[in-house]
Amino acid sequence: MNTTTAPNLLQRFAARVTEASSTYLEVAGWQQVVEHAGGYSEVVAIAPSLAAAQPEVRELLEDAGVRVVVPDGDDPAAEVADVPVAIVRAEMGVAESGSLLVSEHALGDRVVTMLCHRLIQVVAASDIVDRLEGAAEWLAARNGQPGFASLMTGPSRTADIERSLTIGVQGPDEVDVLVLTATDPTATTEDDA
């Protein structure tokens, strides 16, 4: 992965994300991610892998008065069905296509990305690569682990029925891509970076 991200790489990534009908925003840390998510809803789902890796995200949301849903029961789909907003962490962004590689180890992670109305994907600026080959190299280096990963580009769309474009049929209606620009992508505030 990149240790620094060239400004033109971020510009290309931003342009492709926007072309894919997603919102692009650069933020300094997780506090700004929480503020962004809380601005849309009082209920936010977070992927179980994100909740485990960065429990402060849940704490920040709850401190802001947001009810947090982390699917961890027998029926994770029922727990997050129609949740207005969800947050996931992407392994990398691909500037060539505006895609994000999301590693979804557990069913709970997968349902969070598919069943919400607005999906907030968070990626560190240092984890943005130029071309799709970077995602292939990342996957090859893990020898089949994780067992399930997705390249996601914008909200789902289809024109299968009478060639009429429909958005959000097989996933979120809206996608926001937030790029963590802090030196330490685990930072919760600018002061922590």
Primary descriptors:
4-stranded mixed sheet, single chain, about 25% strand, 7 helices, alpha/beta, Rossmann fold, about 190 residues
Q: What's the total helix number?
A: 7
**Largest beta-sheet characterization:** 6 strands, parallel
Label the structural class.
alpha/beta
Q: C-alpha Rg, in Å?
A: 16 Å
Give the helix level as a range of percent.
25-40%
- What percent of residues are in strands? 25-35%
Based on Cα principal axes, name the global outline: globular
- Count all strands and give the number: 12
Structure description:
With 193 residues, the protein is of the alpha/beta class. The chain has helices spanning 7-19, 30-38, 48-53, 55-63, 76-80, 107-115, 132-141; strands at residues 23-27, 43-46, 67-69, 85-89, 92-94, 99-103, 118-124, 128-129, 149-152, 157-158, 166-167, 174-180. It has a single domain (7-156, 168-182), classed as NagB/RpiA/CoA transferase-like (Rossmann fold), CATH 3.40.50. Helix content is 32%, strand content 25%. The strands form 3 sheets. A 6-stranded parallel beta sheet has the order 1-12-7-4-2-3, sandwiched between helices. Strand 10 and strand 11 form a beta hairpin. The two termini are 19 Å apart.
Task: State the gist of this model.
This protein is of the alpha/beta class. It is 32% helix and 25% strand. It has a single domain, classed as Rossmann fold.
